[in-house]
Structure formats: C-alpha cells, structure tokens
Amino acid sequence: MITIHLQPHNPTQAEHRLQVQEGQSLMQAAVDANLPGIQADCGGLLTCATCHVIVPVEWLTQLPPMGGDEDGMLAFTAQTRAPGSRLSCQIMLTEALDGLRVTLPESQY
User: What gap in Å lies between CA 56 and CA 24, rounded to an integer?
Assistant: First the structure.
C-alpha cells in the first residue's frame, strides 16, 4: 500500500489521506474513495479535464513526462492551469510515489 495526500483548494480544509494499491491511477483511487473534488467525467479516457490536480514541483520529477494529449486537455480545466497541473488519470501510482501530495483545484467545472 502507498499513501497519497490530496489537499482541497481551501487550505483550511483537512487533507484527504488515501491508502491505495500500486498500479492504479490517482484518479481511480480518488473515485474509489468517493473523494470530493475529482469528478472524472470521462472515466480516465483523457477526453475531459475534470480530474485536474496540481502537483508540487518537488514531485514533478517523479512523474512520467506529460504526453501531448494530456497537455492539450489541460487547456480545458476550469481553474487556470498552474505550472504543476496534471490530469490525475495520467498519474499511475507506484512505490516511487508513496507520500505524493497534490492540491485539488477550486472547481472542476
């Protein structure tokens, strides 16, 4: 099991801490946990941007490079794209990501 931390946009709200199995996407782990803030309308098919998260710079090097489709889809996020913006459906959870912290945007719509 690996631990993932998701911080709501409002820093006064408590973070969500998930214990998840390696090998699934961050989006799927959030959906399975009924986590508010990840809509995942397309179910991970990379045809929407409703699983947007912001990854701190110190974790970006641990992620695989962003593909062109993900990069293009990030143009459709409800919140302005940030330097660490990624789609959680494209972040596959591995042991190297144990302790990953991401921030949820203010809105997915």
Answer: 20
DSSP secondary structure string for all residues of 10-31:
STTSPPEEEEE-TTSBHHHHHH
Q: Is the pTM of this model over 0.90?
A: yes
Q: How many residues does the chain have?
A: 109
Cβ atoms 29, 4 nearer than 8 A: yes
Residue 38 and residue 46: Cα distance in Å, rounded? Answer: 14
Neighbours of 48 (CB within 10 A): 19
For residue 72, report the phi and psi dihedrals to the nearest 5 degrees. -65, -40
Matching CATH number, 2-8+16-103, of 3.40.50.10540, 1.10.357.10, 3.40.50.720, 3.10.20.30:
3.10.20.30
pLDDT tens across 48-79, in order?
Answer: 999 999 999 999 999 999 999 999 999 999 99
Report how far apart, in Å, the C-alpha atoms of 69 and of each of 19, 39, 47, 107 are.
Answer: 29, 19, 9, 21
